[in-house]
Write a structure and sequence with these properties.
The chain is α/β, with parallel strands linked by helices. Helices cover about 30% and strands about 20% of the residues. The protein folds into five domains: about 100 residues, PriA, 3(prime) DNA-binding domain (GIY-YIG endonuclease), CATH 3.40.1440.60; about 60 residues, no CATH class; about 190 residues, Rossmann fold (3-Layer(aba) Sandwich); about 180 residues, 3-Layer(aba) Sandwich (Rossmann fold); about 90 residues, Alpha-Beta Plaits, CATH 3.30.70. The strands form seven sheets. It has a seven-stranded parallel β-sheet with strand order 11-12-10-13-14-9-15, with helices on both faces. The chain has a six-stranded parallel β-sheet with strand order 16-26-25-17-24-23, sandwiched between helices.
């Protein structure tokens, strides 16, 4: 018997696979999980290659300890997806593949308990003759396995192993040849037929029908940019299109991505209501808020084909789905699709790559598409579908009114703790009419600063270069960067003055103010502080939908995706700060944010109004917003970026370093920048000077960054790959990371 070796990816910052001897009884195959010794530890790895030869001396290799043979291997396509992400985002394959699996699967002691969902296989009717003709006459065990596939609707892997000792590898081979496929378990109903599904669906507008037809009539890879104003029924387009696509392929799967966890309950409810013929387990969610066991079960259900629809946040883009036929990315512009720790990937961009890899359609939906996606559509690479009107005929877009705070001050019209007179009057008017209002302020806490007027002391975090935020209900000062907390001092620590006072305002302070200036109103605050407990956000949003709230106060959590039927007024506070950000994407984000929150008003036919308090009402961004003119804003901003040579017209990467001192971090960046200049292709890449981050110190760690830029994506990627060995060879910092296509510059 020839020796067998496996090449394994492990979760380590290394761009190599590791060779091991394989001496277990069950034959291995690429895509299976194994337990292997790594240094002094035992770790879980992913088999990427099985071979009978190795460049290393066999006697020097260590043995595979255990094989997860109860789990069907992840496909070669999935490994290729992880490989692309690893190469593009400058990480090792194991750093992508292993974290993409549920934590429970990376613990060998839990394999037997977790793998309750067993893979099943079925023979394709058209391939019966091909399968039998390919088998040698005397291959009794193979023929026994083939006969079982003919006789049974689906064959479990455990039953197959009883018929043939190498059943797993054999079935994988037959699947690769197109003779068999993974079967949907018998107890999982299929989607209703297209005719049945459409019979009970709401009547679509002409724009919606055109969009659905374009998506469902396409063959193969097709990226669509669904640009629809808020309330135009983008979700209805998703539902109709997926019903048609999945009905045409009775065993296919679909992936729907949303930017935030708190949006999953309402999406899940909409999908379950629409596809009510499906069993409860046929639609699952995937996000970091799930308990470890639940996330593992949902991942396994998707991997085995037991579910038809997976709804999740960005981590779901790397879910193993063997029969994926369509991908939807809702609110595709949202920065939350970019991972900011570990593998710094863009789920939206990986969705495009995965759709191209599988030759399937992908739909990117947004009222304010990212300028990168808009530019792709302008160049004809994406098909743009437009929903210019709201789905409910009588539900017009809200009017936008800019309240000039300087004019209010000049005329002697007093504001009350940041709330202008016109906004307070509008809130009272809605309360009298029994309508709901929404007040948006993207800053949680009571006040961002607590200071002393006598000596100028300001409460700061001792571990970060940031102010400590006052949280009045909890009577604490809290750092929003490292989590440090302290009781509010009774007097100034520097001069003992007892008249220390908050400056500025957060959602807690606005909530308190509204309770006094709009007497009798039921005020509810929704932000990260009020929704810390699991399920609390869903309960609070239910109160809003039930009409038990008159004024809703919140941060970006309430700004997008929610269908508040009785909200007719939206008030926006303190938006001007984003106009002066050093980040060139700040205006794009502000426009998207204000458009999204404005879209919460007037969705059920009642006239909606948006009131934005600003000191710069003539600013081009506010003027475009008042006209509901995303197209004009996008085109003018793209022209500015073209002139300034900014993305999407150039490609960027960011090297960040963390050190015990700022000098150490900057010295490291300067040294590796000098080394970069000698790399092949470096002359096509612009390297900027190293600079400290805006928040330079977090948890006693100092941070700095180095920006790289090129007009050629290929040149930048080539240089980054050549740079990796030099980076790993350097010392002097605690950590460093490379981020490709950074969002925060």
């Amino acid at each position: 018997m020839s020796k067998v070796f496996v090449r394994v990816a492990v979760d380590q910052p290394m761009h190599v696979l590791f060779d091991y001897r394989y001496t277990l009884d069950t034959p291995p195959s690429a895509g299976m999980l194994v337990q292997v010794p790594f240094g002094r530890r035992e770790v879980v790895g992913l088999i990427c290659e099985v071979t009978s030869a190795t460049d290393l001396l066999a006697s020097k290799l260590r043995d595979v300890r255990a094989l997860c043979d109860g789990l069907a291997p992840v496909s070669e396509t999935w490994i290729a997806l992880a490989g692309f992400a690893a190469e593009y985002y400058q990480r090792g394959l194991g750093e992508v593949a292993l974290p993409a699996l549920p934590q429970a699967l990376r613990d060998p002691s839990r394999w037997n308990r977790l793998l309750a969902i067993e893979p099943r296989y079925r023979l394709l009717d058209a391939e019966r003759e091909s399968l039998h003709e390919s088998l040698p006459i005397r291959a009794i065990a193979l023929r026994r396995l083939a006969d079982a596939l003919v006789e049974q609707p689906s064959l479990a892997l455990s039953d197959a192993r009883a018929l043939h000792p190498k059943a797993a590898a054999t079935l994988d081979d037959w699947s690769a040849r197109g003779w068999i496929e993974l079967a949907v378990p018998d107890n999982i109903p299929l989607l209703p037929s297209q005719a049945t599904a459409h019979a009970a669906l709401p009547v679509l507008t002409d724009e919606q029908r055109d969009a659905v037809d374009a998506i469902t009539n396409v063959q193969g890879f097709a990226p669509f940019l669904l640009h629809g104003v808020t309330g135009s029924g983008k979700t209805e387009v998703y539902l109709h299109a997926l019903a048609a696509l999945l009905a045409a392929k009775p065993d296919a799967q679909a992936l729907v991505l949303v930017p935030e966890i708190n949006l999953t309950p309402q999406f899940e409810a909409a999908f379950r209501a629409r596809f009510s013929a499906l069993a409860k387990g046929s639609i699952v969610t995937m996000h970091s808020g799930l308990a470890e066991g639940e996330r593992a079960r949902n991942w396994l259900a998707a991997h085995t084909g037991a579910v038809r629809i997976v709804l999740g946040t960005r981590l779901a883009i790397l879910a193993s789905m063997p029969r994926l036929a369509a991908i939807v990315v809702d609110e595709e512009h949202d920065p939350a699709y970019k991972q900011q720790e570990g593998l710094r990937y863009s789920a939206r961009d990986l969705a495009i790559y995965r759709a191209k890899q599988l030759d399937i359609p992908v739909v990117l939906g947004s009222a304010t598409p990212s300028l990168e996606s808009w530019w792709q559509a302008e160049q004809g690479r994406y098909t743009r579908l437009t929903l210019a009107r709201r789905a409910i005929a009588e539900a017009a877009l809200p009017s936008v009114r800019l309240i000039d705070l300087e004019e209010e001050r000049r005329r002697g019209r007093a504001s009350v703790d940041g709330l202008s007179g016109p906004l307070i009057a509008a809130l009272k008017s809605r309360l009298e009419r029994g309508e709901q209002s929404l007040v948006f302020l993207n800053r949680r806490g009571y006040a961002p600063i607590l200071s002393c007027d006598a000596c100028g002391w300001v409460a700061g975090c001792p571990r970060c270069s940031a102010y400590a935020v006052l949280h009045k209900p909890e009577r604490t000062l809290r750092c929003h960067h490292c989590g440090w907390e302290s009781r509010i001092p009774k007097s100034c620590p520097d001069c003992s003055n007892i008249d220390i006072a908050p400056m500025g305002r957060g959602t807690q302070r606005v909530e308190e103010t509204l309770a006094s200036v709009v007497p009798g109103a039921r005020v509810l605050r929704i932000d990260a502080d009020s929704t810390r407990r699991k399920g609390s956000a869903q309960v609070l949003f239910s109160d809003v939908h039930a009409g038990e709230v008159d004024i809703l106060v919140g941060t970006q959590m309430i700004a997008k995706g929610h269908d508040f039927r009785h909200v007719t007024l939206v008030g926006v506070l303190n938006a001007d700060t984003a106009l002066f950000s050093h980040d060139f994407r700040a205006s794009e984000r502000l426009f998207a944010q204000l458009t999204q929150v404005s879209g919460r008003a007037g969705r059920a036919g009642l006239p909606g109004e948006v009131m934005i308090q600003t000191r710069y009402p003539r600013h081009a961004l506010y003027q475009a917003l008042s006209r509901q003119d995303y197209v004009g804003f996008a085109n003018s901003t793209l022209a500015e970026r073209r002139d300034a040579r900014l993305p999407p017209f150039v490609y960027q990467a960011m090297l960040r370093a963390e050190g015990r001192t700022l000098e150490a971090a900057l010295a490291f960046l300067a040294e590796v920048a000098a080394a970069f200049a000698s790399l092949p292709g470096a002359d096509r890449v612009m390297v900027y000077d190293a600079v400290p981050l805006t928040i330079v110190k977090v948890f006693n760690v100092h941070r700095a960054q180095l920006l790289l830029e090129s007009g050629s994506r290929a040149a930048l990627q080539t240089a980054l790959r050549a740079w990796q060995p030099l980076l790993r060879a350097q010392r002097g910092v605690l950590r460093w990371n490379v981020e490709v296509d950074p969002l925060d510059v």
